[in-house]
Design a protein that fits this description.
Elements (H helix, E strand, L loop, with lengths): L13 H11 L3 H22 L3 H25 L10 H5 L4
Helix pairs in contact: 1-2, 1-3, 2-3
C-alpha cells in the first residue's frame, strides 16, 4: 500500500529532554513558558481524545523550532533590514 506514512512518535523521554534543552537556550525566558503552555493544552486534548497525538505534535513542533533557531539567529545577525513588508492581516483581512 503506497502513500505517506505517519511519522514515528517521539521517544517517551523526548518531552523531558526537549524541556531541558529549552531551559539551556538563550530564549528560555519566553520559550519554556510557551512550551509548558502548549504541553498543558496538549495534555488536556490527549485526556479528552484518549490519543497521544497532541503530545507528539507539541514535541515535534518544538524540536523543529529549536533546530531552526540557529538559522534564524544567523539571518537576524546578517544585518538585513526587513522594514518593507506587508502584514499578514493586510493580505488575509482581519481575523475574528
Amino acid at each position: 500500500m503506497g502513500g505517506v506514512s505517519a511519522p514515528a512518535p517521539p521517544a517517551p523521554a523526548a518531552s523531558a529532554q526537549l524541556l531541558a534543552r529549552l531551559r539551556e537556550d538563550r530564549r528560555a525566558g519566553s520559550w519554556v513558558p510557551a512550551f509548558e503552555r502548549d504541553w498543558a493544552t496538549a495534555l488536556e486534548a490527549a485526556r479528552d481524545t484518549y490519543s497521544l497525538s497532541p503530545l507528539h505534535d507539541v514535541v515535534r513542533t518544538w524540536q523543529l523550532r529549536l533546530a531552526a533557531a540557529p538559522a534564524v539567529d544567523a539571518y537576524l545577525d546578517s544585518g538585513r533590514v526587513e522594514t518593507d513588508f506587508v502584514g499578514l492581516d493586510a493580505i488575509l483581512g482581519t481575523r475574528r
